Amino acid sequence: MEKVQPQTSYSSRSAQVISLEKGKLPPQAVDLEEVVLGAMMIDKKGVDEVIDILHPEVFYKEAHQNIFEAIYKLFQSSEPVDLLTVSAQLKKEKKLDIIGGEFYLIQLTQKVSSSAHIEFHARIILQKYIQRSLIKISNEIIEDSYDEGTDVFDLLDSAESKLYEVTQGNLKRSSETAQSLVIQAKKRIEEIANKEGLSGIPSGFTQVDKLTSGWQPSDLVIIAARPGMGKTALTLSMARNMAVNYNIPVAFFSLEMSSVQLITRLISSETGLSSEKLRTGNLEKHEWEQLNVKVKGLETAPLFIDDTPSLSIFDLRAKARRLASQHGIKLIMVDYLQLMTAGGSQKGGNREQEISTISRNLKALAKELNVPVIALSQLSRAVETRGGSKRPLLSDLRESGAIEQDADIVSFIYRPEYYKIDEWDDEERTPTAGQAEFIVAKHRNGGLDEIRLKFVGHLGRFENLEMFDFPTEIHSRMNDAANDDTFKPSNLPSPDEAFGSSMNDDVTPSDGDDGIPF
Hints:
Strand order of the largest sheet: 3-2-4-5-1-6-7-8-9
Protein name: Replicative DNA helicase
Region (Disordered): 480-518
Structural class: alpha/beta
Number of helices: 21
Number of domains: 2
CATH class of the largest domain: Alpha Beta
Number of strands: 9
CATH topology of the largest domain: Rossmann fold
CATH architecture of the largest domain: 3-Layer(aba) Sandwich
Distance between the termini: 73 Å
Oligomer: single chain
CATH superfamily of the largest domain: P-loop containing nucleotide triphosphate hydrolases
Domain SF4 helicase: 194-469
GO molecular function, one term: hydrolase activity
Radius of gyration: 31 Å
Organism: Halomarinibacterium sedimenti
Helix content: 40-55%
Protein backbone atom coordinates (compact mmCIF):
# COMPACT_ATOMS: atom_id res chain seq x y z
CA MET A 1 0.00 0.00 0.00
CA GLU A 2 1.29 3.40 -0.91
CA LYS A 3 2.65 5.31 2.06
CA VAL A 4 0.85 8.59 2.69
CA GLN A 5 3.43 11.36 2.57
CA PRO A 6 3.06 14.53 4.64
CA GLN A 7 1.53 17.21 2.41
CA THR A 8 2.64 20.81 2.25
CA SER A 9 -0.64 22.63 1.60
CA TYR A 10 -2.85 20.76 4.01
CA SER A 11 -0.24 19.70 6.59
CA SER A 12 0.36 23.37 7.35
CA ARG A 13 -3.31 23.70 8.11
CA SER A 14 -3.62 20.34 9.88
CA ALA A 15 -0.60 20.82 12.15
CA GLN A 16 -2.86 22.37 14.78
CA VAL A 17 -5.31 19.52 14.30
CA ILE A 18 -2.79 16.83 15.21
CA SER A 19 -1.59 18.85 18.22
CA LEU A 20 -5.05 18.45 19.73
CA GLU A 21 -4.81 14.67 19.96
CA LYS A 22 -1.18 13.69 19.44
CA GLY A 23 -0.67 10.41 17.65
CA LYS A 24 -4.05 10.44 15.92
CA LEU A 25 -4.46 10.91 12.18
CA PRO A 26 -7.16 13.34 11.13
CA PRO A 27 -10.31 11.75 9.61
CA GLN A 28 -9.66 10.84 5.98
CA ALA A 29 -10.79 8.61 3.13
CA VAL A 30 -7.82 8.55 0.73
CA ASP A 31 -9.01 5.40 -1.00
CA LEU A 32 -12.36 7.02 -1.84
CA GLU A 33 -10.56 10.14 -3.05
CA GLU A 34 -8.66 7.96 -5.51
CA VAL A 35 -11.85 6.24 -6.67
CA VAL A 36 -13.73 9.53 -7.18
CA LEU A 37 -10.92 11.20 -9.14
CA GLY A 38 -10.43 8.09 -11.27
CA ALA A 39 -14.17 7.93 -12.04
CA MET A 40 -14.22 11.60 -13.02
CA MET A 41 -11.44 11.02 -15.57
CA ILE A 42 -13.11 8.02 -17.22
CA ASP A 43 -16.79 9.05 -17.17
CA LYS A 44 -18.26 12.49 -17.95
CA LYS A 45 -21.36 11.59 -15.91
CA GLY A 46 -19.18 11.33 -12.82
CA VAL A 47 -17.97 14.91 -13.28
CA ASP A 48 -21.53 16.21 -13.60
CA GLU A 49 -22.66 14.43 -10.43
CA VAL A 50 -20.01 15.67 -7.99
CA ILE A 51 -18.49 18.86 -9.43
CA ASP A 52 -20.83 21.04 -7.34
CA ILE A 53 -20.45 18.92 -4.19
CA LEU A 54 -16.67 18.89 -3.87
CA HIS A 55 -13.97 21.56 -3.91
CA PRO A 56 -10.17 21.19 -3.77
CA GLU A 57 -9.86 21.71 0.00
CA VAL A 58 -12.03 18.68 0.85
CA PHE A 59 -9.31 16.27 -0.36
CA TYR A 60 -6.82 15.14 2.26
CA LYS A 61 -3.86 14.55 -0.06
CA GLU A 62 -2.29 17.58 -1.68
CA ALA A 63 -1.88 15.64 -4.94
CA HIS A 64 -5.62 15.00 -5.02
CA GLN A 65 -6.31 18.67 -4.39
CA ASN A 66 -4.22 19.62 -7.42
CA ILE A 67 -5.86 16.98 -9.63
CA PHE A 68 -9.39 18.07 -8.71
CA GLU A 69 -8.47 21.71 -9.25
CA ALA A 70 -7.29 20.83 -12.78
CA ILE A 71 -10.55 18.94 -13.44
CA TYR A 72 -12.57 21.89 -12.16
CA LYS A 73 -10.77 24.35 -14.43
CA LEU A 74 -11.40 22.11 -17.45
CA PHE A 75 -15.08 21.87 -16.50
CA GLN A 76 -15.38 25.65 -16.13
CA SER A 77 -13.91 26.25 -19.56
CA SER A 78 -16.24 23.59 -21.09
CA GLU A 79 -13.35 21.39 -22.14
CA PRO A 80 -13.50 17.57 -22.00
CA VAL A 81 -12.26 15.88 -18.84
CA ASP A 82 -10.21 12.71 -19.33
CA LEU A 83 -6.80 11.30 -18.54
CA LEU A 84 -5.03 13.21 -21.32
CA THR A 85 -6.66 16.61 -20.76
CA VAL A 86 -6.11 16.48 -17.00
CA SER A 87 -2.47 15.53 -17.57
CA ALA A 88 -2.06 18.42 -20.02
CA GLN A 89 -3.69 20.88 -17.59
CA LEU A 90 -1.40 19.80 -14.75
CA LYS A 91 1.62 20.04 -17.05
CA LYS A 92 0.51 23.54 -18.05
CA GLU A 93 0.37 24.54 -14.37
CA LYS A 94 3.72 22.79 -13.70
CA LYS A 95 2.13 20.48 -11.14
CA LEU A 96 2.31 17.16 -12.98
CA ASP A 97 5.53 16.06 -11.27
CA ILE A 98 4.19 17.20 -7.87
CA ILE A 99 1.24 14.82 -8.08
CA GLY A 100 3.38 11.85 -9.14
CA GLY A 101 3.40 12.22 -12.91
CA GLU A 102 1.22 10.60 -15.56
CA PHE A 103 1.83 7.20 -13.99
CA TYR A 104 -0.13 8.24 -10.87
CA LEU A 105 -3.05 9.50 -13.01
CA ILE A 106 -3.11 6.15 -14.86
CA GLN A 107 -3.17 4.34 -11.51
CA LEU A 108 -6.23 6.36 -10.46
CA THR A 109 -8.18 5.47 -13.60
CA GLN A 110 -7.34 1.77 -13.12
CA LYS A 111 -8.83 1.70 -9.62
CA VAL A 112 -12.39 2.05 -10.93
CA SER A 113 -14.39 0.82 -13.90
CA SER A 114 -17.34 3.26 -13.83
CA SER A 115 -18.79 6.26 -12.00
CA ALA A 116 -21.37 4.17 -10.14
CA HIS A 117 -22.04 5.40 -6.59
CA ILE A 118 -19.69 8.36 -7.14
CA GLU A 119 -22.02 10.79 -5.38
CA PHE A 120 -22.20 8.56 -2.31
CA HIS A 121 -18.40 8.34 -2.23
CA ALA A 122 -18.09 12.12 -2.65
CA ARG A 123 -20.42 12.69 0.34
CA ILE A 124 -18.13 10.54 2.51
CA ILE A 125 -15.08 12.58 1.40
CA LEU A 126 -16.98 15.75 2.29
CA GLN A 127 -17.94 14.31 5.66
CA LYS A 128 -14.30 13.59 6.49
CA TYR A 129 -13.35 17.14 5.51
CA ILE A 130 -16.05 18.58 7.78
CA GLN A 131 -14.77 16.43 10.64
CA ARG A 132 -11.24 17.73 10.08
CA SER A 133 -12.55 21.30 9.95
CA LEU A 134 -14.46 20.85 13.21
CA ILE A 135 -11.35 19.46 14.91
CA LYS A 136 -9.32 22.43 13.67
CA ILE A 137 -11.98 24.93 14.77
CA SER A 138 -12.30 23.25 18.18
CA ASN A 139 -8.55 23.47 18.68
CA GLU A 140 -8.55 27.17 17.77
CA ILE A 141 -11.45 27.82 20.17
CA ILE A 142 -9.57 26.04 22.97
CA GLU A 143 -6.44 28.13 22.32
CA ASP A 144 -8.45 31.38 22.21
CA SER A 145 -10.36 30.44 25.36
CA TYR A 146 -7.12 30.23 27.36
CA ASP A 147 -6.30 33.81 26.35
CA GLU A 148 -7.49 35.99 29.25
CA GLY A 149 -7.51 39.08 27.04
CA THR A 150 -10.17 37.68 24.69
CA ASP A 151 -13.69 39.03 25.12
CA VAL A 152 -16.05 36.11 25.66
CA PHE A 153 -18.71 37.53 23.31
CA ASP A 154 -16.10 38.03 20.57
CA LEU A 155 -15.06 34.44 21.17
CA LEU A 156 -18.65 33.22 20.76
CA ASP A 157 -19.14 35.25 17.59
CA SER A 158 -15.84 33.98 16.18
CA ALA A 159 -16.77 30.36 16.95
CA GLU A 160 -20.20 30.74 15.37
CA SER A 161 -18.75 32.40 12.27
CA LYS A 162 -16.27 29.59 11.73
CA LEU A 163 -18.97 26.96 12.11
CA TYR A 164 -21.21 28.96 9.79
CA GLU A 165 -18.49 29.07 7.14
CA VAL A 166 -18.16 25.29 7.28
CA THR A 167 -21.93 24.92 6.93
CA GLN A 168 -22.29 27.44 4.14
CA GLY A 169 -19.39 26.14 2.12
CA ASN A 170 -20.18 22.44 2.29
CA LEU A 171 -23.79 21.62 3.13
CA LYS A 172 -25.51 22.45 -0.13
CA ARG A 173 -29.14 21.61 -0.77
CA SER A 174 -29.89 19.38 -3.70
CA SER A 175 -32.75 19.85 -6.16
CA GLU A 176 -36.20 18.59 -5.21
CA THR A 177 -38.68 16.84 -7.47
CA ALA A 178 -41.94 18.45 -8.52
CA GLN A 179 -43.81 15.66 -6.72
CA SER A 180 -42.25 16.42 -3.32
CA LEU A 181 -42.72 20.16 -3.81
CA VAL A 182 -46.40 19.72 -4.73
CA ILE A 183 -46.95 17.67 -1.56
CA GLN A 184 -45.28 20.42 0.50
CA ALA A 185 -47.36 23.12 -1.21
CA LYS A 186 -50.64 21.23 -0.61
CA LYS A 187 -49.76 20.75 3.05
CA ARG A 188 -49.04 24.45 3.42
CA ILE A 189 -52.31 25.41 1.72
CA GLU A 190 -54.19 23.20 4.21
CA GLU A 191 -52.39 24.92 7.10
CA ILE A 192 -53.28 28.34 5.65
CA ALA A 193 -56.95 27.33 5.41
CA ASN A 194 -56.92 26.38 9.10
CA LYS A 195 -55.40 29.78 9.95
CA GLU A 196 -58.23 31.63 8.16
CA GLY A 197 -56.10 32.77 5.23
CA LEU A 198 -52.97 33.91 7.11
CA SER A 199 -49.98 31.90 5.93
CA GLY A 200 -47.37 34.13 7.56
CA ILE A 201 -46.74 36.15 10.70
CA PRO A 202 -49.65 38.56 11.43
CA SER A 203 -48.66 42.22 11.80
CA GLY A 204 -51.77 43.09 13.80
CA PHE A 205 -52.93 45.52 11.10
CA THR A 206 -56.01 44.06 9.41
CA GLN A 207 -55.63 45.51 5.92
CA VAL A 208 -51.87 44.88 5.81
CA ASP A 209 -52.40 41.24 6.79
CA LYS A 210 -55.18 40.92 4.21
CA LEU A 211 -52.82 42.15 1.46
CA THR A 212 -49.77 40.12 2.48
CA SER A 213 -51.44 37.10 4.19
CA GLY A 214 -48.99 37.89 6.98
CA TRP A 215 -45.24 38.38 6.68
CA GLN A 216 -44.02 35.32 4.79
CA PRO A 217 -41.08 33.09 5.80
CA SER A 218 -37.82 33.82 3.92
CA ASP A 219 -39.11 37.23 2.74
CA LEU A 220 -37.08 40.45 3.04
CA VAL A 221 -39.45 43.34 3.80
CA ILE A 222 -38.20 46.92 3.50
CA ILE A 223 -40.12 49.68 5.29
CA ALA A 224 -38.74 53.05 4.19
CA ALA A 225 -39.59 56.63 5.09
CA ARG A 226 -38.11 60.06 5.70
CA PRO A 227 -37.03 60.90 9.27
CA GLY A 228 -39.97 61.74 11.52
CA MET A 229 -42.54 59.63 9.69
CA GLY A 230 -42.69 56.96 12.38
CA LYS A 231 -40.61 54.02 11.10
CA THR A 232 -39.58 52.86 14.57
CA ALA A 233 -43.08 53.46 15.93
CA LEU A 234 -44.62 51.25 13.23
CA THR A 235 -42.18 48.37 13.70
CA LEU A 236 -42.50 48.59 17.49
CA SER A 237 -46.29 48.48 17.13
CA MET A 238 -45.97 45.38 14.95
CA ALA A 239 -43.46 43.77 17.32
CA ARG A 240 -45.82 44.43 20.23
CA ASN A 241 -48.81 42.96 18.35
CA MET A 242 -46.87 39.81 17.47
CA ALA A 243 -45.21 39.24 20.84
CA VAL A 244 -48.08 40.27 23.16
CA ASN A 245 -51.22 39.39 21.17
CA TYR A 246 -49.98 36.31 19.29
CA ASN A 247 -47.08 35.16 21.52
CA ILE A 248 -44.75 35.04 18.49
CA PRO A 249 -41.01 35.34 19.35
CA VAL A 250 -39.55 38.47 17.70
CA ALA A 251 -35.95 39.74 17.54
CA PHE A 252 -35.56 43.53 17.31
CA PHE A 253 -32.10 44.88 16.41
CA SER A 254 -31.92 48.59 17.14
CA LEU A 255 -28.82 50.39 15.88
CA GLU A 256 -30.21 53.84 16.62
CA MET A 257 -31.81 53.70 20.07
CA SER A 258 -30.98 51.95 23.34
CA SER A 259 -33.02 48.96 24.45
CA VAL A 260 -34.29 50.86 27.50
CA GLN A 261 -35.57 53.71 25.31
CA LEU A 262 -37.36 51.23 23.06
CA ILE A 263 -39.00 49.38 25.93
CA THR A 264 -40.05 52.72 27.43
CA ARG A 265 -41.84 53.53 24.18
CA LEU A 266 -43.55 50.17 24.30
CA ILE A 267 -44.61 50.84 27.90
CA SER A 268 -46.04 54.19 26.79
CA SER A 269 -47.94 52.50 23.99
CA GLU A 270 -49.19 49.71 26.24
CA THR A 271 -50.27 51.81 29.22
CA GLY A 272 -51.51 54.94 27.47
CA LEU A 273 -49.14 57.08 29.57
CA SER A 274 -47.28 59.67 27.54
CA SER A 275 -43.53 59.30 27.01
CA GLU A 276 -43.08 62.68 28.68
CA LYS A 277 -44.59 61.37 31.93
CA LEU A 278 -42.54 58.20 31.80
CA ARG A 279 -39.33 60.19 31.21
CA THR A 280 -39.97 62.48 34.18
CA GLY A 281 -41.61 59.86 36.44
CA ASN A 282 -44.30 62.43 37.28
CA LEU A 283 -47.15 59.94 37.72
CA GLU A 284 -50.26 60.07 39.88
CA LYS A 285 -51.11 57.18 42.19
CA HIS A 286 -53.69 55.73 39.78
CA GLU A 287 -51.17 56.05 36.94
CA TRP A 288 -48.63 53.99 38.89
CA GLU A 289 -51.26 51.31 39.33
CA GLN A 290 -52.10 51.55 35.63
CA LEU A 291 -48.40 51.15 34.82
CA ASN A 292 -47.94 48.08 37.02
CA VAL A 293 -51.06 46.32 35.73
CA LYS A 294 -50.76 46.97 32.01
CA VAL A 295 -47.08 46.08 31.56
CA LYS A 296 -47.55 42.51 32.79
CA GLY A 297 -48.35 41.28 29.28
CA LEU A 298 -45.27 43.07 27.98
CA GLU A 299 -43.06 41.57 30.69
CA THR A 300 -43.85 38.01 29.60
CA ALA A 301 -43.83 38.73 25.84
CA PRO A 302 -41.21 36.81 23.77
CA LEU A 303 -39.57 40.02 22.51
CA PHE A 304 -35.76 40.16 22.31
CA ILE A 305 -34.09 43.55 21.82
CA ASP A 306 -30.43 44.00 20.83
CA ASP A 307 -29.07 47.55 20.78
CA THR A 308 -25.50 46.86 19.61
CA PRO A 309 -24.30 49.99 17.76
CA SER A 310 -22.66 49.80 14.29
CA LEU A 311 -23.74 46.18 13.96
CA SER A 312 -22.13 44.37 11.03
CA ILE A 313 -24.13 42.04 8.83
CA PHE A 314 -21.90 39.21 10.02
CA ASP A 315 -22.61 39.95 13.72
CA LEU A 316 -26.32 40.22 12.98
CA ARG A 317 -26.26 36.82 11.30
CA ALA A 318 -24.44 35.24 14.26
CA LYS A 319 -26.80 36.79 16.81
CA ALA A 320 -29.91 35.87 14.78
CA ARG A 321 -28.77 32.25 14.45
CA ARG A 322 -28.23 32.09 18.20
CA LEU A 323 -31.67 33.54 18.95
CA ALA A 324 -33.25 31.15 16.46
CA SER A 325 -31.65 28.11 18.08
CA GLN A 326 -32.21 29.22 21.70
CA HIS A 327 -35.58 30.97 21.52
CA GLY A 328 -37.10 29.96 18.17
CA ILE A 329 -37.60 33.50 16.87
CA LYS A 330 -40.08 33.73 14.02
CA LEU A 331 -39.34 37.27 12.78
CA ILE A 332 -36.34 39.65 12.71
CA MET A 333 -36.54 43.45 12.65
CA VAL A 334 -33.59 45.76 11.91
CA ASP A 335 -33.73 49.51 12.70
CA TYR A 336 -32.24 50.63 10.45
CA LEU A 337 -30.34 49.36 7.41
CA GLN A 338 -28.12 52.39 6.69
CA LEU A 339 -26.57 52.21 10.18
CA MET A 340 -25.25 48.71 9.54
CA THR A 341 -21.78 47.89 8.25
CA ALA A 342 -20.71 45.13 5.88
CA GLY A 343 -17.93 43.94 8.19
CA GLY A 344 -14.15 43.93 8.07
CA SER A 345 -13.89 41.80 4.92
CA GLN A 346 -15.65 44.44 2.79
CA LYS A 347 -12.96 47.10 2.58
CA GLY A 348 -12.26 49.44 -0.25
CA GLY A 349 -15.78 49.52 -1.69
CA ASN A 350 -18.02 52.56 -1.74
CA ARG A 351 -21.12 52.96 0.39
CA GLU A 352 -23.46 51.84 -2.37
CA GLN A 353 -21.59 48.54 -2.71
CA GLU A 354 -21.65 48.12 1.06
CA ILE A 355 -25.43 48.64 1.20
CA SER A 356 -25.79 46.13 -1.64
CA THR A 357 -23.81 43.59 0.38
CA ILE A 358 -25.94 44.24 3.46
CA SER A 359 -29.28 43.90 1.64
CA ARG A 360 -28.11 40.75 -0.15
CA ASN A 361 -27.03 39.19 3.15
CA LEU A 362 -30.29 40.15 4.86
CA LYS A 363 -32.16 38.26 2.15
CA ALA A 364 -29.78 35.31 2.58
CA LEU A 365 -30.41 35.37 6.35
CA ALA A 366 -34.18 35.32 5.79
CA LYS A 367 -33.84 32.26 3.55
CA GLU A 368 -31.37 30.51 5.84
CA LEU A 369 -33.52 30.83 8.99
CA ASN A 370 -36.79 30.67 7.00
CA VAL A 371 -38.21 33.70 8.83
CA PRO A 372 -39.31 37.14 7.59
CA VAL A 373 -36.71 39.89 7.98
CA ILE A 374 -38.12 43.42 8.23
CA ALA A 375 -35.48 46.13 7.69
CA LEU A 376 -36.11 49.85 8.00
CA SER A 377 -34.49 52.19 5.51
CA GLN A 378 -34.04 55.91 5.04
CA LEU A 379 -35.28 57.70 1.92
CA SER A 380 -33.32 60.31 0.00
CA ARG A 381 -34.06 64.04 0.26
CA ALA A 382 -35.59 63.97 -3.22
CA VAL A 383 -38.95 63.46 -1.47
CA GLU A 384 -38.70 66.84 0.23
CA THR A 385 -37.84 68.74 -2.96
CA ARG A 386 -40.67 67.19 -4.95
CA GLY A 387 -43.93 69.09 -5.28
CA GLY A 388 -47.46 67.76 -4.91
CA SER A 389 -48.34 65.21 -2.26
CA LYS A 390 -44.69 64.19 -1.66
CA ARG A 391 -45.56 60.52 -1.71
CA PRO A 392 -42.35 58.41 -1.75
CA LEU A 393 -41.37 56.40 -4.82
CA LEU A 394 -39.13 53.36 -5.32
CA SER A 395 -36.51 55.64 -6.86
CA ASP A 396 -36.25 57.46 -3.51
CA LEU A 397 -34.61 54.48 -1.78
CA ARG A 398 -31.33 55.79 -0.48
CA GLU A 399 -27.85 54.77 -1.63
CA SER A 400 -28.58 51.61 -3.56
CA GLY A 401 -30.96 50.12 -6.08
CA ALA A 402 -29.96 46.72 -4.68
CA ILE A 403 -32.43 47.25 -1.83
CA GLU A 404 -35.31 47.33 -4.28
CA GLN A 405 -33.86 44.35 -6.14
CA ASP A 406 -33.29 42.09 -3.11
CA ALA A 407 -36.51 42.89 -1.23
CA ASP A 408 -39.68 40.84 -1.66
CA ILE A 409 -41.77 43.73 -0.33
CA VAL A 410 -40.88 47.42 -0.43
CA SER A 411 -43.22 49.69 1.51
CA PHE A 412 -43.29 53.32 2.58
CA ILE A 413 -44.77 55.28 5.48
CA TYR A 414 -46.37 58.56 4.41
CA ARG A 415 -48.00 61.14 6.72
CA PRO A 416 -49.27 64.22 4.85
CA GLU A 417 -49.72 65.97 8.20
CA TYR A 418 -45.90 66.10 8.48
CA TYR A 419 -45.81 68.32 5.36
CA LYS A 420 -48.68 70.55 6.63
CA ILE A 421 -51.10 68.91 4.17
CA ASP A 422 -54.50 68.95 5.89
CA GLU A 423 -56.54 66.85 3.42
CA TRP A 424 -55.99 63.58 1.59
CA ASP A 425 -55.88 63.81 -2.19
CA ASP A 426 -58.97 61.62 -2.57
CA GLU A 427 -62.46 62.51 -3.77
CA GLU A 428 -63.83 62.99 -0.26
CA ARG A 429 -60.93 65.27 0.73
CA THR A 430 -60.90 63.66 4.17
CA PRO A 431 -58.73 65.21 6.90
CA THR A 432 -55.21 63.81 7.36
CA ALA A 433 -54.90 64.59 11.08
CA GLY A 434 -53.70 61.57 13.03
CA GLN A 435 -53.52 59.36 9.95
CA ALA A 436 -50.77 57.68 7.96
CA GLU A 437 -50.55 55.70 4.76
CA PHE A 438 -48.71 52.37 4.50
CA ILE A 439 -47.79 52.22 0.81
CA VAL A 440 -46.85 48.81 -0.63
CA ALA A 441 -44.86 49.81 -3.74
CA LYS A 442 -43.35 46.41 -4.55
CA HIS A 443 -44.84 43.03 -3.70
CA ARG A 444 -43.16 40.06 -5.34
CA ASN A 445 -45.94 37.62 -4.44
CA GLY A 446 -49.02 39.82 -4.29
CA GLY A 447 -50.75 43.08 -5.09
CA LEU A 448 -49.95 46.71 -4.32
CA ASP A 449 -52.04 49.04 -2.16
CA GLU A 450 -52.12 52.21 -0.08
CA ILE A 451 -53.45 51.34 3.37
CA ARG A 452 -54.59 54.00 5.84
CA LEU A 453 -53.53 53.58 9.48
CA LYS A 454 -54.22 55.58 12.62
CA PHE A 455 -51.18 57.29 14.16
CA VAL A 456 -51.32 58.21 17.85
CA GLY A 457 -48.45 60.67 18.07
CA HIS A 458 -48.18 61.19 21.83
CA LEU A 459 -48.00 57.42 22.38
CA GLY A 460 -45.86 56.62 19.33
CA ARG A 461 -48.30 53.98 18.19
CA PHE A 462 -49.94 52.88 14.95
CA GLU A 463 -53.37 51.23 14.98
CA ASN A 464 -56.07 50.03 12.62
CA LEU A 465 -57.94 53.03 11.24
CA GLU A 466 -61.35 51.37 11.18
CA MET A 467 -61.44 51.37 14.97
CA PHE A 468 -61.54 55.16 14.90
CA ASP A 469 -63.63 55.78 11.78
CA PHE A 470 -66.79 56.49 13.80
CA PRO A 471 -67.81 60.06 12.72
CA THR A 472 -68.77 58.86 9.23
CA GLU A 473 -70.83 56.00 10.69
CA ILE A 474 -72.66 58.26 13.14
CA HIS A 475 -73.41 60.81 10.42
CA SER A 476 -74.74 58.09 8.11
CA ARG A 477 -76.96 56.51 10.76
CA MET A 478 -78.34 59.88 11.83
CA ASN A 479 -79.32 60.64 8.22
CA ASP A 480 -80.97 57.25 7.89
CA ALA A 481 -82.86 57.77 11.11
CA ALA A 482 -84.01 61.30 10.12
CA ASN A 483 -85.49 59.97 6.88
CA ASP A 484 -87.22 57.11 8.66
CA ASP A 485 -90.84 57.63 9.72
CA THR A 486 -90.29 55.23 12.60
CA PHE A 487 -87.37 57.23 13.92
CA LYS A 488 -86.63 56.67 17.60
CA PRO A 489 -83.70 57.91 19.68
CA SER A 490 -82.72 54.27 20.20
CA ASN A 491 -81.82 54.13 16.49
CA LEU A 492 -78.73 56.20 17.22
CA PRO A 493 -75.56 54.41 18.30
CA SER A 494 -74.74 54.46 21.98
CA PRO A 495 -71.59 56.31 23.09
CA ASP A 496 -69.84 52.99 23.81
CA GLU A 497 -70.85 51.64 20.41
CA ALA A 498 -69.82 54.77 18.55
CA PHE A 499 -66.59 55.58 20.35
CA GLY A 500 -65.50 52.14 21.52
CA SER A 501 -64.57 51.00 25.00
CA SER A 502 -61.11 52.54 24.55
CA MET A 503 -62.66 55.94 25.28
CA ASN A 504 -63.07 54.82 28.89
CA ASP A 505 -59.36 54.12 29.25
CA ASP A 506 -57.41 56.50 31.39
CA VAL A 507 -55.23 58.05 28.66
CA THR A 508 -53.93 61.47 29.58
CA PRO A 509 -51.53 63.05 27.06
CA SER A 510 -48.96 65.29 28.62
CA ASP A 511 -49.40 69.01 28.01
CA GLY A 512 -45.72 69.27 27.22
CA ASP A 513 -45.73 66.48 24.66
CA ASP A 514 -45.54 67.82 21.13
CA GLY A 515 -46.60 64.55 19.50
CA ILE A 516 -43.38 64.13 17.53
CA PRO A 517 -43.40 60.68 15.94
CA PHE A 518 -40.73 58.14 16.64
